[in-house]
Amino acid sequence: MSLEHDLESLAIDIAREAGELARTRREAGVAIAATKTALADIVTEADREVEALIRARLTAARPDDGFLGEETGGDSGESGVTWVVDPIDGTVNYAYGIPSYAVSIAAVRGEPTPGEWEALAGVVYTPALGEMFHAARGEGAWLGVNRLSVNPEVGGAGALLATGFGYDPATRPGDIELIGRVMPAVPARDLRRGGSAASDLAFVAAGRLDGYFERGLAPWDLAAGSLLVTEAGGRFGRAEPDGGPRAPLVVAATPAIFDRLAEAAGLA
Ligand code: IPD
Ligand code: CA
């Protein structure tokens, strides 16, 4: 078995256990532990507990690897592989009881910085929905045992797109303006705001969305999902066009609309 395949299998096992912990904690009730970058940017006790579990399992299985997690930050390793982890992507959904939240675990080679890393394996698991999206570099993207591919074409009604918003209210006018530019240009039949960037990317891979764009994502939001997209035959792009490193723009889509979406969003 390849290294990529081994990393994928490990990520699947850990995501399942971590997801089960998130789900049972949710059933027991959610406590907001703190706010982070903005009042709307919350962390629950479960986020912390789930990340601790993932980190402990990874350290036990692969002690020489590095780690970068949303809640506990980074540690460089010696193996050249770093795990990039979002314990609960879609924390606001989680806090409100909306089932669209995901455990996102990726293994990357190189610096754990999007654009500089090479993603080796990635898993996006939605415990409340029981869907395990997984990919290994060069070995395809899968939902359970079913191989995924992006939508090959987009019908005359236009593309089904998704987007998201960062937590800082100051970014909202720019986000709304971006939507106003993108929707007529692609064109879009409709727009979703699902609340979990990792799931949005997995949905592009699965053909449930034709494209997705968002500003301001962090490495752990996109590490696993971007590999799902490219392994499913889609295209993924990220750039820092206006706001610098704090407001990177991400575009993921079927090749049928990628260039139009990227151009309208200002990626190129
Ligand atoms: C957030 C979600 C959301 C996206 C935000 C992310 P979190 O992650 O992925 O969909 O729009 O940009 O920060 O805080 O729930 O892990
Ligand atoms: Ca996230």
TrEMBL record:
<feature type="binding site">
    <location>
        <position position="89"/>
    </location>
    <ligand>
        <name>Mg(2+)</name>
    </ligand>
</feature>
<feature type="binding site">
    <location>
        <position position="70"/>
    </location>
    <ligand>
        <name>Mg(2+)</name>
    </ligand>
</feature>
<comment type="similarity">
    <text>Belongs to the inositol monophosphatase superfamily.</text>
</comment>
<keyword id="KW-0479">Metal-binding</keyword>
<dbReference type="GO" id="GO:0004401">
    <property type="term" value="F:histidinol-phosphatase activity"/>
</dbReference>
<dbReference type="Pfam" id="PF00459">
    <property type="entry name" value="Inositol_P"/>
</dbReference>
<dbReference type="InterPro" id="IPR020583">
    <property type="entry name" value="Inositol_monoP_metal-BS"/>
</dbReference>
<dbReference type="InterPro" id="IPR020550">
    <property type="entry name" value="Inositol_monophosphatase_CS"/>
</dbReference>
<keyword id="KW-0378">Hydrolase</keyword>
<dbReference type="GO" id="GO:0008934">
    <property type="term" value="F:inositol monophosphate 1-phosphatase activity"/>
</dbReference>
<dbReference type="GO" id="GO:0007165">
    <property type="term" value="P:signal transduction"/>
</dbReference>
<dbReference type="GO" id="GO:0006020">
    <property type="term" value="P:inositol metabolic process"/>
</dbReference>
<comment type="function">
    <text>Catalyzes the dephosphorylation of histidinol-phosphate to histidinol, the direct precursor of histidine.</text>
</comment>
<feature type="binding site">
    <location>
        <position position="86"/>
    </location>
    <ligand>
        <name>Mg(2+)</name>
    </ligand>
</feature>
<dbReference type="GO" id="GO:0046854">
    <property type="term" value="P:phosphatidylinositol phosphate biosynthetic process"/>
</dbReference>
<dbReference type="InterPro" id="IPR033942">
    <property type="entry name" value="IMPase"/>
</dbReference>
<feature type="binding site">
    <location>
        <position position="88"/>
    </location>
    <ligand>
        <name>Mg(2+)</name>
    </ligand>
</feature>
<dbReference type="InterPro" id="IPR000760">
    <property type="entry name" value="Inositol_monophosphatase-like"/>
</dbReference>
<feature type="binding site">
    <location>
        <position position="221"/>
    </location>
    <ligand>
        <name>Mg(2+)</name>
    </ligand>
</feature>
<comment type="pathway">
    <text>Amino-acid biosynthesis; L-histidine biosynthesis; L-histidine from 5-phospho-alpha-D-ribose 1-diphosphate: step 8/9.</text>
</comment>
<protein>
    <recommendedName>
        <fullName>Inositol-1-monophosphatase</fullName>
        <ecNumber>3.1.3.25</ecNumber>
    </recommendedName>
</protein>
<keyword id="KW-0460">Magnesium</keyword>
<dbReference type="GO" id="GO:0046872">
    <property type="term" value="F:metal ion binding"/>
</dbReference>
